[in-house]
Each structure stands twice: as structure tokens, then as C-alpha cells.
Amino acid sequence: MNPDKPMSKKPRIHIIAGARPNFMKISPLVEALHSRAKDDGGEVCPGIRIIHTGQHYDPNMSDVFFNELGIPKPDYHLEVGSGSQAEQTARTMVAYEKVLLQDRPGLVIVVGDVNSTLACSLTGKKMGIRVAHVEAGLRSFDMTMPEEINRKLTDAISDLLFVTEEAGMRNLREEGIPEERMYFVGNVMIDTLRKNLLKLENGDFSPSVPLKSFLQSKGRYAVLTLHRPSNVDRKEDLYRVWSAIRGIAVDVPILFPVHPRTKNRIEEHAPDVSNISMVAPLGYLDMLYAVKGATLVLTDSGGLQEETTALGIPCVTIRENTERPSTVDIGTNYLAGTDPGSILAAAREILSGHPKKGGIPPNWDGHAAERIADIILREMKRGGGIR
Ligand code: UD1
What we know:
The protein has two domains: 193 residues, Glycogen Phosphorylase B (Rossmann fold, 3-Layer(aba) Sandwich); 144 residues, 3-Layer(aba) Sandwich (Rossmann fold), CATH 3.40.50. 47% of the residues lie in helices and 14% in strands. The chain has a seven-stranded parallel β-sheet with strand order 3-2-1-4-5-6-7, sandwiched between helices. A six-stranded parallel β-sheet has the order 10-9-8-11-12-13, with helices on both faces. Helix 1 packs across helix 7. It is globular, with a radius of gyration of 21 Å. The structure holds uridine-diphosphate-N-acetylglucosamine. Uridine-diphosphate-N-acetylglucosamine binds next to helix 1, helix 5 and helix 11.
């Protein structure tokens, strides 16, 4: 715990973050809740505590995001680290239960779909604490993905469900979630993107050395990320995807910030990397800068599908399904699957200079976190169980 922060008698909210994609989601939430707490003089607004589970712990997977996004230092760090699905989830639950026993909040806010999301929502709920899930309702309908299991279970026990896109509202209704628990608020990840785009546009930012050296000699380029277990863990899956990537690299240089899960597998199974620049994971601003200037993005990430849609950059998603259908129906995303021919065809359509045109999904306007904070505070004023 942060010993400098005195325990107050004010009601408290815990905001949970554990893995890289969580940090850009909590940033605008922390800001919106803090700004309302200031306006209200502490009468109704709660004290906020940030809990970092430690699921991601490398500085370039964690600290860089806190620094760049101005997220306050976590009040608790659970240091759970890596492990199997069960080990990581169980360690997080045990460690978070200890925190809850000494610092019981009125509400636990979890974001996204990582193991920390499920572990902390389950622990909080079992201790009789209300749970809010930000990015609720997304469904890939693929129960082989650990994230799909995390999403469904978290939604089933959450009291407040904050939804990013219309399909999410439909999915929750179909699962029988009562209407009064769900709110179509938009996308907090896009709040962060819009705010930080301004920093890039104001010229307040200079890319890091590895990014600068990649960009120096390049005209058109692609950005690649790859880390889903279904694409990288087994040799034959990685080999299939890699054969398409190599085909695309013949036409366009590729910047590849490599996730730790993927690094060893690539070295072992896919050594041919000509025209592919492998670099360590990039910080938030570097990545935004790289994606904003790219001709196309190739990815199996969830967040990048949304960020490319918000930026109007063509994206080829190397997965059989997406839990974010608005990025395909409205945005710039091509759901290519994992067949090398389909991946190549989508990339070539984009590189031919005629990518599909995209729009912005409803409520992706940079104000999602403000809506969420207002709903949480309204619930508090109504005595909605947030003590
Ligand atoms: C996790 C999330 C995934 C999310 C991804 C973003 C789950 C089930 N998966 O997957 O939804 O898209 O984060 O990155 O929660 N490692 C390091 N340093 C770190 C963290 C991890 O080296 O800071 C290595 C470890 O060897 C670890 C492996 O990466 O075993 C995978 O990490 P893990 O947290 O298990 O899952 P991710 O693949 O990162």
C-alpha cells in the first residue's frame, strides 16, 4: 500500500488494472472520478484507490503507461506475475482478498477481459461488494479464448455494466442481464486515444530511438502485433500466420513490436524476418504515432481494432472472430481469419490504394469515462449500494 495516503472515512472505489490494455482504459476513468470529487468537495464523491495486480510487470508493459498517461501511482501492488491461467487467476484472488479485508470499498471497477478482471470481480462480489464492469457485453462466441470466459463470467456477476458498442447491449439482453444494469456509454480506450492525439498534433512528442530509426528510411509501412495464444503458441499456427506476414513484407516494410509471449516463439519457429523490424513493446505514445502514420495495421489484438477504427487506419485482424463487430461493420477493420490467402488478400486490397472507408461507432467521442463517472455518482446519491 502507498503509506503516504491516509485512510479516509470517505466511501471508496477500487479501480483494478493488471495488464497492458487495462492501463489506457483506467486513465480517463481515474481522471473523470477525480475531477468530480474535486467539484463536489468530497461530500458524495468517493476516494479512489488504484490496485495494480502485477499481471504485467515489465517496465515496457506497465510503468511506461503510468508515466505517459499520468496515472497516479497504484495504492496497492499485488505483484502476482506470470503463471498458468489458474495460477495467475488464483494468486490474484488470494492477494486481492487480503486487500479487501483491510480496505473495503463500496465499489470495485474492473475493465476489459484479462485474468485480473475476472479474479478481482469474483473476489469483490463474493465479499458482498458491488462490481462495475467497463467494456461489458463484448462476445467473440469463442469459448476457447480465456478472454471470452473472463468477459462472460464478469458480466454475469456485475452490478453496473458499461458497454462500448451496440452489439454489447444485444449480447447482454440475450444473456438475461436486467436492462437497468446496462449502460451504452462508449469507449474509454478512445477517450485516451483522442486526448493523446492532441499531444502528438501539438508537437509535444518525439518518437523513441528505435521507432525513429524505423521511420527514417521508410515511406509506406505496416505495423504488426501478434500475441493471441491461438496464433503464436503452437508451431503450426504461428507458421501459417507467419507465411502471410512474410508475403506482405515483400510489398511493404513491417514494424513489429513483439509481445513477450510471442518473442521466443518467433525466434524458435519463424526465423525469416527480412523486411520485418522486430522491436521491444512500444510505449503508448510511440505506438499511437506509429499506427497513425501506417498504411495498414495487422493484428490479433482487441484494442488495436478499435484504435485503428477511431483513427481511420485500415486494419487486418488475424483472427476467426471479433468481439468488436462495429469495427468491421462501421470501421476500417477487415476480419481476415487465419488463412494465409485471406490475410494476404485483405492486405493487398489495402495496399492497392482502395481500402474500405470507415466511420466512427456511436459514442466513441472521447467522453465515455465522464458518462461512467456520472452514472456511478448518480447511483451513489440514490443510495445504490455504493457505501
Ligand atoms: C494478456 C491477456 C490478453 C491481453 C494481453 C495484452 C489474459 C488471459 N490475457 O495476455 O487478453 O490481450 O495480456 O498484452 O489475461 N510476460 C512478460 N512480461 C510481462 C508480462 C508477461 O515477460 O510483463 C510474459 C510471461 O512469460 C507470460 C507471458 O508473457 O507468461 C504471457 O503473459 P500473460 O499475462 O499470461 O498473458 P498475455 O499473453 O500477456
